[in-house]
Amino acid sequence: MTQDKMGLTATIVFQASSANYGESLGNVASLKKLTRGDGQQYSYISRQAIRYDIVQQLGEKEANLEAEGSGDKKVIQFAKDASIKDFPEIDFFGYMKTKKDNNSSIRSAKVRLSNAISQEPYEGDTDFLTNMSLAQRIRKATGDNKIRNSIAQSEIQQSYYVYTLTVDLDQIGIDDNDGTNLNANEKNRRVAKLLDTIQYLYRDIRGRREDLKPLFAIGGVYDIKNPIFENAVKVRNSNIDIESIQSILDDPRVKENTSVGFVDGALNNSQEIKDKLDAVTVAKFMTDLKKKVADYYEGN
Fold it and tell me: Would you say the C-alpha torsion 135, 156, 51, 200 has a positive or negative sign?
């Protein structure tokens, strides 16, 4: 591949429980949710939350920060001397560096994430939290039996979630603001490291470690920079909707460059996924994707 217009995209399905909270209302912690036209509410994990988890687990040095402005109006941003050559974080997710003379240095994200949207509606389940063990301990330690512990509630949901990753391969490692253009080996290393992180991604929240690794993944490297499968991958009754995916694969340009990975048995129609989509393991899917990326950078 020697094109100058190549993008990687992968749409991923995982299963998790109550992995992103928004504002609390009184003593109730509310899940981040949106309402669709069917009147149902669906929880979601924001792209910012997924980005945070990726950066934390990437295993690369985090970019330096600084507070720009004065008084209570300071803005926390990446340091002016932070360069993509040193920090894959801002190579992937971009930056904006403001200056006192109102000139700004901006680099858009070259790795884009969608929100992870639940595939099952939120049904209003809540978890009651009393912290009873600590209350009993302090009563015993102080002898004061009048100490009472507050009751809190958290909205909870267990669901399949779907999100999409897109990578602008020919813009990774390049920053026109300072003339940086990393060598092909480093560009390839960074994207491979990103895919390794996605393969075993997790999220720490409220004393839990939620597993965000793919149970199903579809994508590839294409000469079109579009999140091709973002609106085509649906989970219904623990089944992947095969027909919507096949309609996208009717385009030969897409089909010949697409791979599918899945965890056998994690979804009800695993055999159908294997038979109709030529699915392999998630590990093989990621290996194939990394090889396509390596081939692209080797040819450029």
Answer: positive
